[in-house]
Amino acid sequence: MLAVVNDATFLSGQFLLAMPGMGDPRFERAVIAMCGHDEHGALGIGLGATIEGLTLHDLLDQFQIAHGAAPDAPVHFGGPVEPRRGFVVHSLEWRGQDTINVADRWALSGTVDVLRAIAEGTGPERWVVALGYAGWEGGQLDGELARPGWFNVAGDTTLLFDTPAEERWTHAFAAAGVDPRLLVIGGGTA
Length: 190
Description:
- Belongs to the UPF0301 (AlgH) family.
- This is UPF0301 protein GQR91_11725.
- InterPro entries: AlgH-like.
- By secondary structure, this protein is α+β, with helices and mostly antiparallel strands.
- It has one domain (14-178): VC0467-like (3-Layer(aba) Sandwich), CATH 3.40.1740.10.
- Helices cover 21% and strands 33% of the residues.
- The chain has 5 helices and 10 strands, in the order ββββαββββαβαβαα.
- It has helices at residues 56-62, 112-120, 140-145, 157-162, 165-175, and strands at 14-18, 31-38, 41-46, 50-55, 74-77, 81-90, 100-102, 106-109, 127-137, 150-154.
- Strands 1, 2, 3, 4, 5, 6, 7, 8, 9 and 10 form a 10-stranded mixed beta sheet that branches.
- The radius of gyration is 17 Å and the shape is globular.
- The protein starts with 13 loop residues before the first strand and ends in a 15-residue tail after the last helix.
- The relative contact order is 0.22.
- Mean pLDDT is 90; it is low at 1-7.
């Protein structure tokens, strides 16, 4: 797993927003919580769309975990890499065996112990479940950021935990003072 770096040149603890017209349908209106970014690569969890027909209770059933205290929350499309691998982006007060603190804004866990804890009512207070992730090799994301396609904004936990998935993209741009309807991916020539 990537190191979490609190360095202004890296995006750990921020959100990446897909620009309109990016050209990759997998990232249409994507909101990606950047959980690791350093010179070796980057890893983010998509939180801008949910997987239709799949809920937390379905995942718990697959692991034979009683639902207990867990609400039947949607599961997010975390990204196109390893789409069957699960992640939980959550508040910082809970820590499991593989939990990573992301820039003191949120945490990331990727083992079944976090699901058990949520079901038992002993897990993190706030959480979002996702399958898959977005990943970049060393320098790849930096190269993509040099071209139009991505816009990064501060890692606001209100956006993460209090905003419905289908509203995150618009709300994130609005919080940055940008109206995404006015954005274009290409520029003209004069």
